[in-house]
Fold this sequence. Notes:
Largest sheet: 6 strands, mixed
Number of strands: 6
Number of helices: 7
CATH class of the largest domain: Alpha Beta
CATH architecture of the largest domain: Roll
Structural class: alpha+beta
Strand content: 25-35%
Strand order of the largest sheet: 2-1-6-5-4-3
Amino acid sequence: MFCANWPDRIIPELEDYFGQLLFLLDGMLLSYLLSSIAGFQPATYSCLYYSCKPDIMGWRNIASYNRSKNRNNPMQNQIFKLSLLLIAICISTIVHAQSFNKQEQIVQQTIIKLFNALSISDTAGLRLYSTADVNFYEYGEVWTIDTLIHKVTFAKPADFKRTNTFDFVNTTIDGNTAWATYYLQSAITRNGKQELVKWMETVVLVKRKKQWKIKLLHSSLIKRI
Protein backbone atom coordinates (compact mmCIF):
# COMPACT_ATOMS: atom_id res chain seq x y z
CA MET A 1 0.00 0.00 0.00
CA PHE A 2 2.82 2.39 0.88
CA CYS A 3 5.15 1.33 -1.90
CA ALA A 4 3.86 -0.75 -4.77
CA ASN A 5 7.30 -1.63 -6.10
CA TRP A 6 8.87 -2.76 -2.75
CA PRO A 7 9.89 -6.24 -4.07
CA ASP A 8 12.08 -4.61 -6.72
CA ARG A 9 13.83 -2.57 -4.01
CA ILE A 10 14.14 -5.15 -1.23
CA ILE A 11 14.99 -8.32 -3.15
CA PRO A 12 18.16 -6.83 -4.69
CA GLU A 13 19.25 -5.74 -1.20
CA LEU A 14 18.70 -9.29 0.05
CA GLU A 15 20.76 -10.63 -2.83
CA ASP A 16 23.55 -8.21 -1.91
CA TYR A 17 23.38 -9.37 1.70
CA PHE A 18 23.49 -13.08 0.82
CA GLY A 19 26.29 -12.45 -1.64
CA GLN A 20 28.41 -10.97 1.14
CA LEU A 21 27.36 -13.75 3.52
CA LEU A 22 28.40 -16.40 1.01
CA PHE A 23 31.81 -14.75 0.66
CA LEU A 24 32.31 -14.72 4.45
CA LEU A 25 31.17 -18.31 4.93
CA ASP A 26 33.34 -19.43 2.04
CA GLY A 27 36.38 -17.93 3.78
CA MET A 28 35.49 -19.46 7.17
CA LEU A 29 35.08 -22.92 5.68
CA LEU A 30 38.31 -22.70 3.69
CA SER A 31 40.28 -21.44 6.71
CA TYR A 32 38.99 -24.31 8.87
CA LEU A 33 39.82 -26.96 6.28
CA LEU A 34 43.34 -25.57 5.85
CA SER A 35 43.86 -25.40 9.60
CA SER A 36 42.71 -29.03 9.96
CA ILE A 37 45.25 -30.17 7.36
CA ALA A 38 48.23 -28.09 8.47
CA GLY A 39 47.52 -27.81 12.19
CA PHE A 40 47.58 -24.04 12.52
CA GLN A 41 45.08 -21.57 13.88
CA PRO A 42 42.09 -20.92 11.54
CA ALA A 43 42.41 -17.17 12.14
CA THR A 44 45.71 -17.15 10.25
CA TYR A 45 44.13 -18.57 7.13
CA SER A 46 41.08 -16.32 7.48
CA CYS A 47 43.36 -13.26 7.39
CA LEU A 48 45.22 -14.60 4.37
CA TYR A 49 41.99 -15.50 2.61
CA TYR A 50 40.28 -12.16 3.06
CA SER A 51 43.43 -10.17 2.23
CA CYS A 52 44.46 -12.20 -0.82
CA LYS A 53 41.13 -13.20 -2.41
CA PRO A 54 40.65 -11.19 -5.61
CA ASP A 55 38.02 -8.51 -5.03
CA ILE A 56 38.01 -6.95 -8.48
CA MET A 57 34.63 -5.30 -8.20
CA GLY A 58 34.01 -5.15 -4.40
CA TRP A 59 31.50 -7.22 -2.47
CA ARG A 60 28.42 -5.21 -3.34
CA ASN A 61 29.50 -4.81 -6.96
CA ILE A 62 30.02 -8.58 -7.25
CA ALA A 63 26.56 -9.17 -5.85
CA SER A 64 25.08 -6.55 -8.20
CA TYR A 65 26.91 -8.08 -11.14
CA ASN A 66 25.65 -11.56 -10.31
CA ARG A 67 22.13 -10.22 -9.82
CA SER A 68 22.03 -8.48 -13.19
CA LYS A 69 23.59 -11.49 -14.91
CA ASN A 70 21.41 -14.15 -13.31
CA ARG A 71 18.12 -12.28 -12.74
CA ASN A 72 16.42 -14.24 -15.52
CA ASN A 73 18.37 -17.47 -15.00
CA PRO A 74 16.46 -19.76 -12.59
CA MET A 75 19.19 -22.43 -12.73
CA GLN A 76 21.88 -19.99 -11.54
CA ASN A 77 19.61 -18.80 -8.74
CA GLN A 78 19.03 -22.38 -7.60
CA ILE A 79 22.78 -23.07 -7.63
CA PHE A 80 23.35 -19.96 -5.49
CA LYS A 81 20.76 -21.08 -2.95
CA LEU A 82 22.15 -24.62 -2.90
CA SER A 83 25.65 -23.26 -2.24
CA LEU A 84 24.36 -21.36 0.79
CA LEU A 85 22.66 -24.49 2.09
CA LEU A 86 25.76 -26.68 1.65
CA ILE A 87 28.02 -24.16 3.40
CA ALA A 88 25.55 -23.89 6.29
CA ILE A 89 25.50 -27.70 6.64
CA CYS A 90 29.31 -27.88 6.57
CA ILE A 91 29.67 -25.20 9.25
CA SER A 92 27.04 -26.90 11.41
CA THR A 93 28.96 -30.18 11.13
CA ILE A 94 32.25 -28.46 12.00
CA VAL A 95 30.79 -26.78 15.09
CA HIS A 96 29.28 -30.06 16.25
CA ALA A 97 32.52 -31.98 15.69
CA GLN A 98 34.52 -29.45 17.72
CA SER A 99 32.16 -29.37 20.71
CA PHE A 100 33.12 -31.21 23.89
CA ASN A 101 30.89 -32.14 26.81
CA LYS A 102 31.53 -31.09 30.40
CA GLN A 103 33.40 -34.25 31.41
CA GLU A 104 35.68 -34.04 28.37
CA GLN A 105 36.43 -30.40 29.18
CA ILE A 106 37.45 -31.45 32.72
CA VAL A 107 39.94 -33.89 31.17
CA GLN A 108 41.27 -31.11 28.95
CA GLN A 109 41.62 -28.76 31.91
CA THR A 110 43.88 -31.30 33.64
CA ILE A 111 46.24 -31.14 30.66
CA ILE A 112 46.10 -27.35 30.51
CA LYS A 113 46.81 -27.04 34.24
CA LEU A 114 49.82 -29.36 33.94
CA PHE A 115 51.31 -27.07 31.28
CA ASN A 116 50.48 -23.99 33.34
CA ALA A 117 52.51 -25.54 36.16
CA LEU A 118 55.27 -26.38 33.70
CA SER A 119 55.40 -22.78 32.46
CA ILE A 120 56.08 -21.39 35.93
CA SER A 121 58.21 -24.31 37.21
CA ASP A 122 55.54 -25.27 39.74
CA THR A 123 56.87 -28.69 40.78
CA ALA A 124 53.98 -29.33 43.19
CA GLY A 125 51.51 -28.70 40.35
CA LEU A 126 53.41 -31.05 38.04
CA ARG A 127 53.11 -33.84 40.62
CA LEU A 128 49.47 -32.97 41.37
CA TYR A 129 48.31 -33.47 37.78
CA SER A 130 50.49 -36.54 37.06
CA THR A 131 50.61 -40.07 38.41
CA ALA A 132 53.71 -41.08 40.35
CA ASP A 133 54.70 -43.45 37.52
CA VAL A 134 53.94 -41.07 34.62
CA ASN A 135 56.05 -41.32 31.48
CA PHE A 136 56.75 -38.45 29.08
CA TYR A 137 57.94 -39.48 25.62
CA GLU A 138 59.94 -36.50 24.40
CA TYR A 139 62.47 -36.24 21.55
CA GLY A 140 62.95 -40.01 21.41
CA GLU A 141 63.55 -40.21 25.18
CA VAL A 142 61.49 -41.49 28.10
CA TRP A 143 61.17 -39.01 30.96
CA THR A 144 59.80 -39.63 34.44
CA ILE A 145 58.26 -36.92 36.59
CA ASP A 146 61.65 -36.44 38.24
CA THR A 147 63.30 -36.01 34.82
CA LEU A 148 60.74 -33.37 33.86
CA ILE A 149 61.11 -31.48 37.14
CA HIS A 150 64.90 -31.51 36.78
CA LYS A 151 64.62 -30.02 33.28
CA VAL A 152 62.17 -27.25 34.19
CA THR A 153 63.88 -26.08 37.38
CA PHE A 154 67.09 -24.93 35.70
CA ALA A 155 68.04 -21.29 36.12
CA LYS A 156 65.90 -19.11 33.83
CA PRO A 157 66.51 -15.54 32.67
CA ALA A 158 64.50 -12.84 34.44
CA ASP A 159 62.33 -12.21 31.38
CA PHE A 160 61.42 -15.90 30.85
CA LYS A 161 57.79 -16.38 29.91
CA ARG A 162 55.87 -19.23 28.29
CA THR A 163 52.31 -18.95 26.99
CA ASN A 164 50.52 -22.10 25.84
CA THR A 165 47.66 -22.38 23.34
CA PHE A 166 45.74 -25.63 22.86
CA ASP A 167 43.67 -26.88 19.94
CA PHE A 168 42.05 -30.17 20.99
CA VAL A 169 41.44 -32.61 18.16
CA ASN A 170 39.59 -35.25 20.17
CA THR A 171 38.96 -36.29 23.76
CA THR A 172 37.61 -39.71 24.75
CA ILE A 173 36.56 -41.06 28.14
CA ASP A 174 36.14 -44.77 28.87
CA GLY A 175 35.38 -45.36 32.54
CA ASN A 176 38.36 -44.28 34.62
CA THR A 177 40.61 -43.89 31.58
CA ALA A 178 40.71 -41.01 29.13
CA TRP A 179 42.88 -39.95 26.23
CA ALA A 180 43.17 -36.75 24.24
CA THR A 181 45.02 -35.53 21.17
CA TYR A 182 45.73 -31.85 20.62
CA TYR A 183 47.99 -29.31 18.96
CA LEU A 184 50.09 -27.30 21.39
CA GLN A 185 51.62 -23.96 20.49
CA SER A 186 53.95 -22.31 22.99
CA ALA A 187 55.29 -18.77 22.73
CA ILE A 188 58.52 -18.72 24.76
CA THR A 189 60.37 -15.53 25.65
CA ARG A 190 63.92 -15.59 27.00
CA ASN A 191 66.75 -13.06 26.90
CA GLY A 192 64.63 -10.62 24.93
CA LYS A 193 63.93 -13.12 22.14
CA GLN A 194 60.71 -14.95 21.38
CA GLU A 195 60.45 -18.47 19.99
CA LEU A 196 57.28 -20.15 18.77
CA VAL A 197 57.20 -23.94 19.14
CA LYS A 198 54.46 -26.23 17.85
CA TRP A 199 53.79 -29.82 18.86
CA MET A 200 51.16 -32.49 18.34
CA GLU A 201 50.63 -34.52 21.48
CA THR A 202 48.58 -37.43 22.81
CA VAL A 203 47.91 -37.90 26.51
CA VAL A 204 46.49 -40.83 28.47
CA LEU A 205 44.88 -40.04 31.82
CA VAL A 206 43.50 -42.14 34.67
CA LYS A 207 41.05 -41.13 37.37
CA ARG A 208 42.39 -41.46 40.90
CA LYS A 209 40.13 -40.47 43.83
CA LYS A 210 37.79 -38.55 41.49
CA GLN A 211 40.66 -36.58 39.97
CA TRP A 212 42.15 -37.02 36.51
CA LYS A 213 45.91 -37.48 36.37
CA ILE A 214 48.22 -37.80 33.39
CA LYS A 215 49.80 -41.24 33.11
CA LEU A 216 51.42 -40.93 29.68
CA LEU A 217 52.27 -38.10 27.33
CA HIS A 218 53.69 -38.54 23.84
CA SER A 219 54.94 -35.42 22.07
CA SER A 220 55.85 -34.89 18.41
CA LEU A 221 57.61 -31.66 17.49
CA ILE A 222 56.14 -29.97 14.42
CA LYS A 223 58.31 -26.88 14.08
CA ARG A 224 60.22 -24.10 15.78
CA ILE A 225 59.94 -20.54 14.54
